[in-house]
Amino acid sequence: MRKRELFLILGLTTLGLALRIVFMLAMKSGWPGWDSPTIDALYHHLWAKKIAMGDILGSSPGYDAGPFFRAPFYPYILGLVYSIFGTDFLATRILQHLFGVLAVPLTFMVARQYFHVVVAYLAALLVAINGVLIYFESQLLLDFLTVVLYLIFLYLLIKAHREKSSWLYLITGFIAGIFAITRPNILAVVFFVIIWIFLAEKHLKTKIKHSILLLIGTCIIILPVTLRNIFIGDDIVLIASQGGINFYIGNNDKADGYTALLPGTGHSWQYSDAEYEVAGNLGQKPGTIKPSKVSSYYYRKALRFIVSSPDKFLKLLIKKIYLFWNYFEISNNNNLYYLTRYIGVPGYLLSIFAIIGPAGLVGAVLCFKKDKHYWILPITIFGYMATVIAFFVTSRFRIPVVPILSITAVYAFYEVITALTEKRLKYALIISISILVVCLFSWSNLYKHHDKSMAMAEYSLGNTFLKKGDYKSARLQYQKALQQAYNLPKAHLNLGVIAFYEGDTALARIEFQNEIKICGPSAKAFNNLSLLKRLKGDFQSAYALADSAVHYFPNNKEAYINRISASFGKNDETMIKSATESFIKTFPFEPSARYYHGLFLIRSGAVELAKNEFRFAINKKMDIISEYDLSEIYSADLPYGYQPEKIRGKSSYQLGLIYAQENDIDSAFHFFRQAIKYIPNDPDARANLALAYDKIGNYQMAEFEFLKAISIDSTRALYFYNYALTLGKMRRYSKAKEMLAKACLLKPDFTQAKQKLETLKQYLDNSPDYK
Fold it and tell me: Three-state SS for 328?
């Protein structure tokens, strides 16, 4: 690269970096979700935090590791950043922009391999100012990595081909492998690249050698991930197990080509919904199906659709090709149009695909007219397009080809200008008309997918405010969303949650009922209504509402638990037996099902069987389903809800109670301590551990645990009463009197506390030491 070229490309890179800094600062100061990642970004964030805390191989104690559900490279990079800088969103985004801006010089370097320097400069400029690329660099998503990796892959491939370098082919394979463990669809592109090698290389031996080296390099990088999945994840998965589900999402009778919804699972879905369907169809119980089987099931299901409905599949495929080349940027996390407008970034920076898409397509076709060495550009464009439309189309899935399209777009215009200069008017006219025709195609809205409504974006921002505890702003956003789409799922639900937290249970009930009435059955709405009834003591209605949730959503574990809780509240042995046995029959390996069955067994007098259930709940590794389920903020939860992470603590607590009643103090100590380990803020476990200390005469530790329990929950009269008894044994009668008085204040009908307080008062009044 000459000094002048180097100087100019540094200038373009600096321009790109400056725009990225401006965007980042605008986002930091103006976007409420700056520090609140959601959906896929939240999944990456939580995974990276685990990695930063030392869970390098995804084998946390107490959890079934399972194979990777998503390709792991980006979360591991993010985890490395967190381990160095902490959970610092500013530092993370600075590093991502610094890496992302490398696309500018890389675009120049790729373009310069084939075209005039002017083409290279203009293509690099388009990448520098492309708002979509800048936007995705600012998200905790992997897509900015794929842009740069794809350019490195292409540049090394071109160099390897030109220099006939075996080592460069091997290194190119390394880059393909890194891309594959970031997003596995590159593996299909490698297949197209090998076809190009066989077309462009002259000698058969060279073709085979270079293709093998490319594959070896790719496999070397992928192999550790595969081995980890086999030996730690206990499943044969090449990279990630989500492929089958995504393939079915994009290829089914109800697919629209761009929405990531799993048919039959309602407005949102989680991995557990997919696994539940597979288990039912294979005649197995939920929680027992390996992720590879789940993926294979959905691959087969999608293929059955393709084979049985070729006409529908062809129409869907044509639509996805149209969506890929359409200028409109389809969002599937945050709405990039909404976010950029919210922070005041010019919208035209998001519209560059409207030019580079049509012109880039024409330029790519023009490359086929040139020497076969040029064919790698259209092959990497169309090959990558094939991997996207095989699933479903969104903006972030197509951005790896954006820099290459920038090159071929400028090349197309350069060809027009060159032809005009050389008086080849017909050729210039053909290219110009071709670009215009594709522009009309790209700028159209044939499938009405240009959703101008910002209802979902308003709703998502409301979720951010709700997560932050800003109920006023959250309510306003939900109301704005409903004004644009009155039947928007979960908006009424979250308005109900806000009303509940503000103490207006009547309004909360109305909003939950509206969610069901307007948007259809909702597991969360039924569960929340059940909870409201239970809090009011109407256990029969609470049971019926939870039963409705089970009926519509048989995979919703919280519904089963609410049904059990209502039956316990009603104190109806028949209902308790039916509810607990239904739960354990449906989910026999679910720790919470075993826990509640243990509670039922205690009531039935089968204490030894109950012990076994609690031990199972403690020792059973948490299902991989809980790891795979997306940590998405679709809607908020009420308190008292399903909290699977606390089941071990609750089971330990129950065992502690059993052993305390059996006077096995050592075992009681063990399980109460274990309960506190799992649930540090469990006041009951603390209070009962205090009683155990009291029983062996260790009053200092008993006092410590009583004070801990009271600091967590100061509304429990029994804590103060038992603490007073311990204080009495320590001969601290004045303090004991104070604690008994508090117990009586909290519970005026606490007869034992009243009697003890009266006795203690008489003692203190008659004791000369306390006069």
Answer: coil
